[in-house]
Amino acid sequence: MVGARETRLIVLRGNSASGKSSVAAGLRDRFGRGLALVGQDNLRRVVLREHDRPGAANVGLIDAVARYSLDAGYHVVIEGILYADRYAAMLARLRTDHRGPTHGYYLHVPFAETLVRHAGKPIAHEVGEADLRDWYKDLDLLPGAVETVIGADSTLTQTVDRIMRDTGLDRLPAREH
Asked: What is the maximum span of the chain, computed from C-alpha positions, in angstroms?
């Protein structure tokens, strides 16, 4: 078992440029101290510098960091593309093992909107439409209906507000230290 009944585990998934990182940052800004961000891109690309492939080391690292943070009393937001075929088993084990509530969200953005949003990102000159098309999986949901789908019509503020309410983070105190 991991975490406590009071800790919240939130999994944010979706395609590139769907708003996952912005939502995660918004949750942390709104909540304050005591909420750990476990970003797939940071752990996979920066820490390990590996490609996203089945069985890659980042799957276990995401799991380990999330578990450690939950056990330390942090609420945890895991965010990333986290393809279902590669990450579902790890996320299911984490969900089962977590003592507190776990909430899953899939940010669904149509491919055309993905292109528009991607154009404004700092890596837009490095990653082109062909890459985005290769990576894009429409509604790549986890098995078991464990995710709430949030559409592209939900603004960043609306999405953060909803997740704060759904998870109860809006009613919990932030850490003081």
From this structure: 46
Angle at 100 (CA atoms; ends 148, 137), nearest 5 degrees: 30
Q: pLDDT for 83-131, tens place per residue?
A: 999 999 999 999 999 999 999 999 999 988 887 777 677 676 777 778 8
Place of tokens 């093992």: 97
Residue corresponding to tokens 């800004």: 29
Task: Give, as one character, the DSSP assignment of residue 145.
Answer: S
pLDDT tens readout for residues 7-32: 999 999 999 889 999 999 999 999 99
Architecture of the domain spanning 9-171: 3-Layer(aba) Sandwich (3.40)
d(CA 100, CA 69): 13
